[in-house]
Amino acid sequence: MQINSINTSQAVPVVKATSPQAAPATTNNSDRAEFNVSADSFAGLVQRASQMPDVRFELVDAFKSRIQSGQYPSQNTVEGLVDAIGGAVKQAAHSDLSSGS
């Protein structure tokens, strides 16, 4: 599906099609969502979203560069992990020694 050049001020209906074998629809109004927006407003949102940069690629590239240059993980990161993991390992070993395992 492609949404480009929406030139109408009418609301865009959103309908879920069901197959003939699908279970009959229920009338439970507590499980319902409404999407009330004009086509012009929706087109504006689509336009704004298409102009936003994809931050994920920038972050991935930054981490790749840091890893390849040897700057990641930093000494602080390593020390934090050693403290976190080391403390858990020490506690587990102490618990095993205390229980006689």
Mean pLDDT: 74
User: Rg, please?
Assistant: 27 Å
Please report the total strand number as a whole number. Answer: 0
Low-confidence stretches: none
Q: Can you write the helix and strand succession as a string? A: HHH
Report what the structure shows.
By secondary structure, the protein is mostly helical. It has 3 helices and no strands. The chain has helices spanning 39-51, 55-69, 75-99. The model has no long low-confidence stretch (mean pLDDT 74).
Layout: helices, strands, pairs:
Layout: H1 39-51, H2 55-69, H3 75-99
Features:
101 residues; mainly alpha; single chain; 0% strand
Quick structural overview:
The protein is mainly α and 101 residues long. Helix content is 52%, strand content 0%. The protein is built from three helices and no strands.
